[in-house]
Amino acid sequence: MLTVSRRQFLKLSAAGLGASSLAVLGFSPDLVLAEVRQFKLARTTETRNTCPYCSVGCGLIMHSLGDKAKNAPAEIIHIEGDPDHPVNRGTLCPKGAGLLDFVHSPNRLRYPEYRAPGSDKFQRISWNEALDRIARLMKDDRDRNFIAKNADGVTVNRWLSTGFLAASASSNETGYITHKVVRSLGMLAFDNQARV
Ligand code: SF4
User: Fold this and answer.
1) What one-character DSSP code corresponds to residue 89?
2) Ligand 1 pocket member 60 (CB < 6 A)
């Protein structure tokens, strides 16, 4: 419960009286508050992105400060819905509205990790190591299990032993290219969180 001292109560009353007087004169406190928000975001860099949570794929604008110079690392300070995005028109659900906490969470995964067979812990690996390993395992599995013809001798070119899952945050173009790559390898088990 909010506790207000006598001094704070007098201050609040004076502020409320001032605000209502200004409103009578045509100055809306809402506008004043909106202006404060404008100033907060005035010097930020805006970057377009897509919410990573669900298949709705709402558009975001991320506001960051810092010019990436040595002593000014960029930091995201505010995230809101993109008013120009055709899916959400600037709105975000509570999950999307809480994305700033997700971005700054100490538990967020920022690099590939690998858990060796039989091991009980993950170890950090580089992106190159991760991509090389994925490519190696896919190639080996495809070489072992690729089906060029079915029992009737009809060419089918199927690879049934590996599946692929794409993310909802992919753009249409990324989804299209991913689909082409997966199908050209003969893979049938392919799904996308956004069902594109
Ligand atoms: S803001 Fe909500 S509805 Fe939109 S993509 Fe994110 S989780 Fe889904």
Assistant:
1) T
2) no
Instruction: Note the pLDDT tens digit of each residue in 21-48.
Output: 555 555 566 666 666 666 778 888 999 9
- Predicted confidence (pLDDT) per residue in 137-188, tens digit: 999 999 999 999 999 999 999 999 999 988 777 777 888 898 899 999 999 9
The sign of the torsion formed by the CA atoms of 176, 180, 183, 185 equals: negative
pTM comes to 0.62
Contact 41, 78 (CB under 8 A): yes
Query: Measured in angstroms, how far is the CA atom of residue 88 from the centroid of ligand 1?
Result: 9
Considering Cα of 108, then 111, then 112, then 118, what sign does the dihedral take?
negative
By alpha-carbon position, which residue is closest to atom 8 of ligand 1? 54
Ligand 1 contacts CB of residue 53 (under 6 A) = yes
Ligand 1 atom nearest the C-alpha of 92 is 1
Place of tokens 């003969």: 186
